[in-house]
Each structure stands twice: as structure tokens, then as C-alpha cells.
Hints:
The mean pLDDT is 86. The protein has helices at residues 7-28, 30-39, 60-72, 88-95, 103-113, 131-145, 159-169, 195-212, and strands spanning 52-55, 79-84, 121-128, 149-153, 175-179. It has a domain at 52-183 and 191-212: Rossmann fold (3-Layer(aba) Sandwich). The protein contains 8 helices and 5 strands; from the N terminus they run ααβαβααβαβαβα. By secondary structure, the protein is α/β, with parallel strands linked by helices. It starts with 6 loop residues before the first helix and ends in an 18-residue tail after the last helix. A 5-stranded parallel beta sheet has the order 3-2-1-4-5, with helices on both faces.
Amino acid sequence: MRRNVPRRHLAxxxxxxxxxxxxxxxxxxxxxxxxxVAHVLVAEEPPVPAEVMVVSIASAQAxxxxxxSLYQQQISARVMLLTxxxxxxxxxxxxxxxxxxxxxxxxxxxxxxxxxxxxxxxxLPDLVDGTETEIAAVAAFARQRMPASLLFITxxxxxxxxxxxxxxxxxxxxxxxxxxxxxDSFAVESWWQKRGQSRxxxxxxxxxxxxxxxxxxxxxxxxxxxxxxx
Length: 230
């Protein structure tokens, strides 16, 4: 005599099979999902000629190398740097007599050693400590100088957020281009295979939360310079 399977047991079996199927599909398509996770963070364009290009100090070495290369290609004749705010420990190290350049100084040296003349480099005086304060400084510069076009070079994983912030801070009369450096090692197709890039993805999603929900609560508040250097 055939025994009837209780409906509750049957429902549990069906639910388990459905969950197994979903998990299997997720595992089968995990690469596409992981690529999509990083793809959301990246929104860069090929560099185009611009009146001025700005080196993000958040990615000082790679961005400065890229700016130097683009300068040699005559993409832009002007390079802007931002003033990175020192941490107390940085000042303590310098007090020991150790040559310890700031990110801004390091970027300037990279540009100079790569053939960019001093008169083509300008440092904005506004202190910055991250992408949001960098964009605020760039927006202030753009409102005062009104460049026809601006190229912003930053870390590849920062490009979507940088573009989003720039679109809201810079006049629509200034043509914007956001790009990353060819020396940036962040890979959308394989970021999860490297610990450093995995941390960067997680950190960038937290930065988006800080931007959208907290209003950049993590940033220090710096006094604004009276005038941008001429």
C-alpha cells in the first residue's frame, strides 16, 4: 500500500530543491556576478584633449605617471595637483629627519622627473583627504577659472563615484572626462583573485554609502583658502 507524503514534507523537499537550483545557478554564473559587482564602480572614458587635467592624490603615483604620459602626448598642457592633508604621524616622521614626501610632493616629483616643466604644474591650496574633498576643491577651481574642459585622473575603482560627484559640482559648461591610469592594476574581470583589490571593492562600496547616506561624515573639515593660487 502506497504511503501518502505529507504536504509539509513535500513543500520542504520542493523548497530545498529550489534553493539548490538557485545556489547552483549562482555558482555557475558567479564570474558574471563578481564582474558586475566591480563594473558598477568603474565609469571611465578614453582620455581626450582637455584644457587642464587633474591628478587625484588618492592615486598619486599611478595618476601622476599617467598625467606625465598624457602631457607628452599633448592631451593637455596644464596639470593640477591637490594638497594632501598630512597626518600627525607623517609630521612626526619628518621631525626625525627622515625624507618622507607627502603624496602631493611625490606626484610633483614624478611629473618633473617625467619631463613635465614646473610652469605646467599648479598645486591647488585646498587641503584634501579623499575623493570627496578632492572633488570639492576641483569644483571650486572650475567655478573660478571656468575651464572649457577638464580631465580628472583617479583610481579605476573610484571613477564612477568621482564622475557622479563632478557632475554635481562642476558647471555644465565645462566638458568633463574621468579616466584612470594605464598603470592602475585594478582588474574588473579578476579583482576577487587578489586580496588588495578585494579590499578595494569592499572599501569603495562603503565610500559610496558614506557619500550617499552620510554626507561624507568621514572627512575632516578644513578651512578654505581665501584665494586659489594664480
